Amino acid sequence: MARSGSTDRLDPALPGRIVAAVRRDLPLAVLDLAAVFASYFVPLVLRFGGEVPARYWRAFWSFGCLAVVIHLLSNYLLGLYGQMWRFASVQEARRVILAGTLAGLVVVGLDLLPTGGLRPLPLSVVGLGAALSLGAVGAIRFQSRLFGFRRRAAATATRRVLVMGAGEAGAMVLREMLENPWTGLDPVGLIDDDPRKAGISLHGLRVLGPRSAIPGLVRRLAVDEVLLAIPSAPGEVVRDVAALCEEVEVPLRVLPSRRELLGGRVGVRDIRDLRIEDLLGRRQVETDLRAVSAMVRGRRVLVTGAGGSIGSEISRQVAALAPASLVLLDHDETHLHDVLADLNGAPATPVLADVRDRDRVLSVFEEHAPEVVFHAAAHKHVPLLERHPDEALATNVLGTANVADAALASGVRRFVLISTDKAVRSANVMGASKWLAEQLVRSLDGAGCAFCAVRFGNVLGSRGSVIPAFLRQIERGGPVTVTHPAMARYFMSVREAVELVLQAAAMARGGEVFTLEMGEPVNILDLARKLIRLAGKVPGRDVPVEIVGPRPGEKLVEELAGPGEEPEPSAHPGILVTRPPRPRPAELRAAIRELEVLAGARALEELAARMKGYAVEGFAAAGGGVALRPR
After folding, report:
1. Do 476 and 544 contact (CB within 8 A), yes or no?
2. 513 φ, ψ to 5°?
3. Is 336 left (phi over 0), alpha (psi -120 to 50) or beta?
4. What is residue 349's three-state secondary structure?
5. What would you report as the CA-atom Rg of the chain, rounded to the nearest whole angstrom?
6. pLDDT digits (tens, 9 = 90+) for 289-314
7. Separation between Cα atoms, residue 101 and residue 94, nearest integer Å
8. How confident is the model at residue 558 (pLDDT cuts 50, 70, 90)?
9. Predicted structure pTM score
10. Is residue 491 helix, strand or coil?
């Protein structure tokens, strides 16, 4: 027969837990007992100069023991036992103050109770004893944590760090380094360019000077690395600090920009190595997320070239804006698989298809009925396309025509072509093919869909770009090959480029060519040298740099607007807009048909020359054929 009772419901592990708790908290309670007893004993002795009257001695042993019990009980009730004081903060400090204050008020109240007109102890002794008890209990907890940290830090720290930036971010990461010696980072000083902060202390470390003091401090303090704790520091500051660190051969690490951080908070986990984009120092642009979200949220979106550098980032950012559906079209199954994995479970439909297949593209549009299209599918490598202009024509021009025609046929509302600064007065086949693609989409504007093109320069870290190529050459020990000492290019990050693409798309009304503000062009020779230094090597000594001469079709500096295009400010400071005259569709299609004929006949040199000619001079119908004309 089963019988229930209170004893049956007792946790069999409870006695063991009680014993463990008592064993854990007993040392701290004994320390508290001794501290409280001393806090009342010392003021009594001092009050009477060491000659305490017998009456007060007799009262002290009873009243003092009662005071000790009151303080320990208050500490227990307010949770000062069973805590991990090594990680205590303001909240625990408030509990210490509250427990000490409450116990002190009770003890003072008992001393004021009338007992034959005499108090057990003088009020001054009781008041001072209560205050000293509060301070002693707090010191036991917080000073023990501090001393324990110092011992652990000395034992485990492996790298001495000089921190630049005594602001909010610097304070957060400095505190984490001090409280977590397992990171192996031992901060030894601060530097800050603000003269008002010179000499002040932050978490026990002094601000030792401005950034110009870095070389001397590195030598004097035996610094192993410098941490730039200023998120979104201007490029000139990063470059200057990097140069000073290079001078004394210590690595520079940085905190990422605010936009890269979660919740705006920084910590040791966010520290990363210096990247080339930090040195290029583009100012960060702000995106009107409401306008972009309104364009995408609840809409059916299709991205061509979704597995490429730009297409995959468009896919990631669009997926985060809750579209009704997201279709990812690419002809490369590996890239398509990779971008799907990067979406972290966001719903998306992969389509393995080639934009050169007109019927297949049309069937995809009919099946998914997209409302917004980002057309990023393209060949982009300049030297390869110089040798294969027929491939540039097939993908960049005819592929664009296929996607644009399918967009019109299926009722797409907004069509965005991803273009390039190389499309402006292009001297190469790749740029010429993108210029022709621009003409195609703009020639269709006004037929029920808002067509626009977005131009930008080189994207940091994209596949096949100059930076990965330089890094591979550096890894092999060089030489790093630069085509011309004066060669310069515009650069921006993939994330920033796509944010501005989405912003431009949200502003499009049809027929525009948007140009992203790219900052100042970067000298490629300087870029190569910076990358070599980032790898911890010396240009010319450890890794040679060779000038190999410009490649076919390369300009020394790319342009962002062509003749007859007058860039105007847009509603966004990072985007310029031009509204060139709309091409005549009949002339344009006739020119493209002629190019198809040349490609079919394998007249590749003439094909390349004709494409470049159109991009530089324009085209017009003349006597049933196509003739060039100046713009």
Report:
1. no
2. -115, 115
3. alpha
4. strand
5. 36
6. 788 888 999 999 999 999 998 999 99
7. 10
8. low
9. 0.63
10. strand
